[in-house]
Design a protein that fits this description.
single chain, alpha/beta, TIM Barrel, SH3 type barrels, 2 domains, eight-stranded mixed barrel
Length: 303
């Protein structure tokens, strides 16, 4: 499966105040929200992000940034209190991407204790591990326990599949969520965040499987399939479905508006960009873009 339909973002204090209406309009079906870090810090935007996603009905998971150099008991107490004290729909996860300068064995010992006691403290929820193959393979020995946890993999690639840590791979385990893009992607404003970039994620399954796995009510919004790229030398015709559409000078709703086209007006499609928020270049001018689909709604129809 390569056409992952259920997509979301992950956020923390680094994204500051988020326009969750805009994030929802960009086509997200879920969010992961940082709850805590180390042994005493609750993310300053956690409460607001939980309230806003809850109000808008966005399914969300929460996560803890693990610091192996800090007291693991206090980290368990801090995170488990936030897990038990909040309603959320998806997973409780631990972010494992720092060794705090410790040796491999000391990092593993601290993580093993955190995982064991956190799993007990948040039961019946399972604890998910967020990590990358590069970090986990280099800084942790074969733990013998991590592979039993669901995997939220960080693998920044345009490929069809992520690279898994050897521990999950060797036990023939797959991933639950995949952060496929994060730093320097420049997509933050499109998802309503104040920073230039934002973590983009996929769920490993269909909308129906996602809904069933987390016992979610209602339908999971899925963006319509984008139009196929035009064949070489051929520019297919599309007509405007709503009353009007803005023309932008590059893809992105924050781009400058350079014109407008009206209902039933016919345009030629010359290029396609995007997955959830789908943009098409119209005409032969290099800087004329309109939305083909947005928030699950098609805005252009084939003539």
């Amino acid at each position: 499966m390569t056409n992952y339909e259920v997509t979301g973002i992950d956020v923390s204090k680094w994204q500051r105040e988020i326009d969750w209406h805009k994030a929802l309009g960009a086509g997200i079906s879920f969010a992961f929200i940082r709850a805590s870090e180390g042994n005493k810090q609750v993310d300053p935007y956690f409460e607001r992000n939980m309230a806003e996603t809850g109000r808008l009905g966005i399914p969300r998971g929460i996560y803890h940034f693990f610091k192996p150099g800090k007291d693991w008991r206090k980290q368990v107490e801090l995170f488990s209190a936030l897990v038990v004290g909040n309603d959320f729909e998806l997973d409780a996860a631990v972010d494992v991407e720092s060794d705090d300068g410790l040796s491999k064995n000391d990092t593993n010992n601290a993580l093993a204790k955190f995982v064991r006691w956190a799993e007990e403290a948040i039961a019946p929820r399972k604890l998910t591990i967020y990590t990358s193959a590069g970090f986990f393979n280099a800084r942790l020995p074969l733990t013998g326990y991590a592979w039993r946890c669901p995997l939220w993999i960080a693998s920044w690639t345009t490929g069809a599949n992520p690279t898994l840590p050897r521990e999950w791979r060797d036990h023939k385990k797959t991933w639950q969520f995949w952060q496929h893009s994060s730093k320097n992607n420049g997509l933050g404003p499109e998802y309503g965040v104040a920073t230039k970039s934002v973590g983009l994620n996929r769920y490993n399954g269909s909308p129906a499987q996602f809904k069933a796995a987390y016992r979610l009510p209602g339908d999971i919004p899925v963006p319509p399939a984008p139009p196929p790229p035009p064949p070489a030398g051929e520019a297919p015709l599309y007509k405007v479905l709503p009353a009007s559409l803005h023309i932008f000078d590059h893809p992105g709703v924050s781009a400058p508006i350079v014109g407008e086209i009206q209902h039933d007006q016919v345009v030629q499609l010359h290029d396609v960009m995007g997955l959830d928020e789908v943009w098409v270049k119209i005409g032969s001018h290099p800087d004329r873009w309109v939305l083909h689909s947005y928030n699950g709604q098609k805005l252009l129809g084939r003539v």
